[in-house]
Amino acid sequence: MIPVFKPLIEQEEINASKESLELGWLGMGSYVSQFEQTVQKIIGTNDRYVAAVSTGTAALHIALLVAGVGKGDEVIVASFNCSADFQAIGWVGADIVFCDCDDDTLELDLKRAEELVSPKTKAIIVMDYDCILSDHDGIAAFAKKHNLRVIHDAAHSFGSYYKGKPVGSFSDICVFSHDPVKTVTCLDGGTIVVRTEEELKYVHELRLLGMQQPSSVMYQNQRAWTFDVERVGFRYHMLNMHAAIGLAQLGKLDVISSSRREASRYYNQLLKDIPSVRVPNTDFEGVNPFLYYIRVPADQRDDLRAELKKNGVDTGIHWQPGHLFSLWKDCKAGSLDVTDRVGKEILSLPLHSKMSMSVVKEVADQIHAYFSKGAK
Fold first, then answer.
1. What is the fold, at CATH topology level, of the domain defined by 11-250?
2. Whole-angstrom Cα distance, residue 265 to residue 349?
3. For 351, which of 211, 224, 253, 292 could close a Cys bridge (C-beta 3.0–4.6 Å)?
4. Could you give phi then psi for residue 272, rounded to 5 degrees?
5. Which secondary structure element, helix H or strand E, spans residue 192, and what is its range?
6. Per-position pLDDT tens, the chain of length 376
7. Which CATH superfamily is domain 253-372 in?
């Protein structure tokens, strides 16, 4: 079976795991500090501050708290999104407001978002979907107009560039995911990028049970034994071994990005002329693609998935729209006609770092075969 996801685990990651275990300091320590410093260099700016946490979802939760979002507030978010964003909004007691996505880019539709702003709106979550980045200049202008905080969910776009600027270097609050299937994995982990030292201090307390224990001490593989706790906190810190694996991955970022762009471009080349298939409208320049997706007629998608699986090709669906889940079906929303359509058409194909072009061709050939034989 050709899987949708396949982690790039090589000797460097195995060595990093071994070395971190032999160090004997398993919690947050020196590798976490090195990981944060390396992410900071990749972002390439001195006016942002990076903190590593346990998961991308933890980073989302903390980001909403940093943004001051709480009970009675509303947060505008695309329904075509990962459920982690919706859960995080609920955790801080705020109300979800579902927005439609753009039919071409699959990003949050700012024109539709204008219709959803209310006196209760406190923030907007903007997700970069796969290989196309959001209109971040438009988002910044939208947020300024309505006095909103922006949480940039960059779980899909670590290592990408927006108009020549590294993702993470320009957003109000930016979060990355380094979970088992992301382009850069820490086994599990996340990072949050904030604008001020005060916000960084807040993140440090939130990620470690509210303890005012200096991170600088733990980064030396030590801990303080006396400290104060002034706020509610969570067990959201990154572990040393996870950071060590992440460092090994960061050392391969250029190879990871270039190989995934090459595979995505080849998919586009091979699939773009099939009348029933809609490929991403991009040349993949400057991005580190997390997924490669196509859109197919809704009444053929499940049959195509079954045919591909029968022939050894796994596929995925990213995502089911949020407003269709039982937990969130009664949330405030605008028109979601594009989201409803996209949710029935979207299909993720296998995409791996260092993926062989022969594998891309095999998948594409099977899609060609399905549609050429008069698929039902």
1. Aspartate Aminotransferase; domain 2 (3.40.640)
2. 13
3. 292
4. -65, -20
5. strand 190-194
6. 999 999 999 999 999 999 999 999 999 999 999 999 999 999 999 999 999 999 999 999 999 999 999 999 999 999 999 999 999 999 999 999 999 999 999 999 999 999 999 999 999 999 999 989 999 999 999 999 999 999 999 999 999 999 999 999 999 999 999 999 999 999 999 999 999 999 999 999 999 999 998 999 999 999 999 999 999 999 999 999 999 999 999 999 999 999 999 999 999 999 999 999 999 999 999 999 999 999 999 999 999 999 999 999 999 999 999 999 999 999 999 999 999 999 999 999 999 999 999 999 999 999 999 999 875 4
7. Aspartate Aminotransferase, domain 1 (3.90.1150.10)
